[in-house]
Design brief:
The protein is an alpha+beta fold. The chain contains 5 helices and 7 strands; from the N terminus they run αααββββββαβα. It has a domain of about 130 residues: Beta Barrel (Lipocalin), CATH 2.40.128. A hairpin with a 7-residue loop joins strand 5 and strand 6. Keywords: Signal.
């Protein structure tokens, strides 16, 4: 092993020395650094600016989840694929940033109102799209073997319900899962008692 270290030290300067630019050995005068002997024309970025892109950029707009969550309104879970007896799930947003949100979820379970505060990090899921900012669909990753989908709605949008396109997208994504309807008008009482 010691022999290999000695050999590496001796061979390294020999391998590196041909890489020095031509000129004097102290590198005080420029040599042939970056010189290319070619007859080809060199394109510059200015020459390339006139070229059109090969593919058309999609004009489809994907909503920003931070804009949906950056509200003082309560956000209700309208539908969910979560296997649970929890109902009337509503989120109160404490703080939103570009990478995460602190929120408290209130829910009704076993005859009582419960709550859980958590920090959620955002990911980009372009398949979850919406036409307006009054609702959004998002996949919740929770520790454990089970993932579920939720269709969420701002409190002010409950009367009209989720947009038709949003419901269609939710149904397409959750088609292999059982959906429970978490929200009913009676859930508004949770706002008066806890949230």
């Amino acid at each position: 092993m010691n022999y290999w270290r000695l050999l590496a030290v001796i061979c390294l300067p020999i391998m590196v020395s041909p890489l020095l630019p031509s000129g004097d050995e102290n590198c005080t005068t420029p040599g042939d650094y970056d010189y290319y002997d070619t007859d080809d024309e060199i394109d510059t970025l200015a020459d390339q600016a006139d070229k059109k892109p090969k593919t058309k950029v999609s004009s489809e707009i994907f909503p920003d989840i931070t804009q949906f969550l950056n509200t003082t309104e309560k956000i209700w879970v309208y539908n969910s694929t979560k296997t649970s007896n929890d109902t009337c799930m509503v989120d109160v947003i404490n703080h939103t940033s570009m990478i995460n949100v602190y929120m408290t979820r209130y829910y009704f379970s076993e005859g009582m109102i419960h709550h859980r505060t958590s920090e959620v990090y955002f990911e980009i899921h372009p398949q979850f799209q919406s036409a307006t900012k009054t609702y959004n669909e998002m996949q919740i990753d929770h520790p454990g073997p089970h993932d579920w989908y939720e269709l969420r709605v701002w409190n002010s949008s409950l009367e009209a319900g989720p947009d038709k396109k949003c419901v269609e997208m939710y149904e397409a994504i959750s088609r292999n899962d059982n959906t429970t309807f978490s929200y009913t008008p009676a859930c508004q009482c949770i706002l008066l008692q806890g949230a």
